[in-house]
Amino acid sequence: MHPFTITKASDTTEALEAGGRGGRYIAGGTTLVDLMRETVERPDVLVDITALPLHDVDRTEDGGLRIGALVRMAEAAAHPAIRDSYPVISQALELSASAQLRNMATIGGNMMQRTRCTYFRDVTADCNKREPGTGCAALNGFNRSHAILGTSDQCVATHPSDLAVALAALEASVHLMAPDKGRRTIPITDFLLQPGSTPDREQALQPGELITSVEIPALPRPLKSGYLKVRDRQSYEFALTSAAVALHIRGGTILDAKVAAGGVGTVPWKLPAVEQALIGEHPSARLWHKAAGHAAEGTHPLRHNGFKVELLKRTVEQQLRTVGGTS
Ligand code: SF4
């Protein structure tokens, strides 16, 4: 492991000062420490931020929900306000990682999760994300688990987070604070970056910026939602495909639909064509099938992952049926 120093920030000011000098923030450490052990990540200075006051889940004035960056995944999954209002988030969290990891990992850290591409974690393989300009071993290698949406000729790795798929579906935002204490808020779909020609840059963060919370906007009620994850085994595995669905149905008509997919994109993949096909329609098995057919628009399968195209459509259709029923 590369040698490093670690300092514990006692408050936000101290943390931001250390972050502004190039320190890497660490809380649960469930991704970063793994990557440091494998020498994929080699930070010189870590800044422990666990003492910062970012541990709360609060209702916003307009009826949305703000989840502090240091709320643990397990805490968020069990929180009554999240379970009651946004089951899609609780379910996505409960289907992530292992119970041990969920007890350690934080919501902010989840937004900073790095890809599970095996070549990224193998320091002997060419990887533009780990070392820009070296190439992409996955393009001509074994790419069964890789992305079919949002890829570039530089990188085809999927985004690993289940939570981010649920948040993208609900059009959540990420709150950030800079070393000069400047604050800004970015939609999660802009916060997480597609690889393009700079796959090493995965989040729209400026140097030293700190995630303080994620916010789910107020959404129309009643809202039924849920998350489906399809994977090779039933626990501690990343998604081959997943679908986050939230539907606002009143008087037998779908008034609003929010749908995103995971396991298929280089970022959580919002599905506006599916949403548009649902809004204004009446729930039915035929509608779920027809709308889900739009899920695979724009896909570019690689040599080993063509099966994901059909699997994605079926995953979305299944989850529309689960959330929306058929009558
Ligand atoms: Fe690296 Fe991305 Fe290629 Fe994987 S897909 S080897 S992460 S550049």
From TrEMBL:
GO terms for molecular function: FAD binding; oxidoreductase activity. Pfam families: CO_deh_flav_C (PF03450), FAD_binding_5 (PF00941). InterPro entries: CO_DH_flav_C, CO_DH_flav_C_dom_sf, Diverse_Substr_Oxidored, FAD-bd_PCMH, FAD-bd_PCMH-like_sf, FAD-bd_PCMH_sub1, FAD-bd_PCMH_sub2, Mopterin_DH_FAD-bd. PROSITE patterns: FAD_PCMH (PS51387). Keywords: Oxidoreductase. Coiled coil: none annotated. Residues 1-221 form the FAD-binding PCMH-type domain. It comes from the Bacteria. The keyword Oxidoreductase applies. PANTHER family: OXIDOREDUCTASE, XANTHINE DEHYDROGENASE SUBUNIT C-RELATED. This is Xanthine dehydrogenase family protein subunit M. It comes from Streptomyces scabichelini.
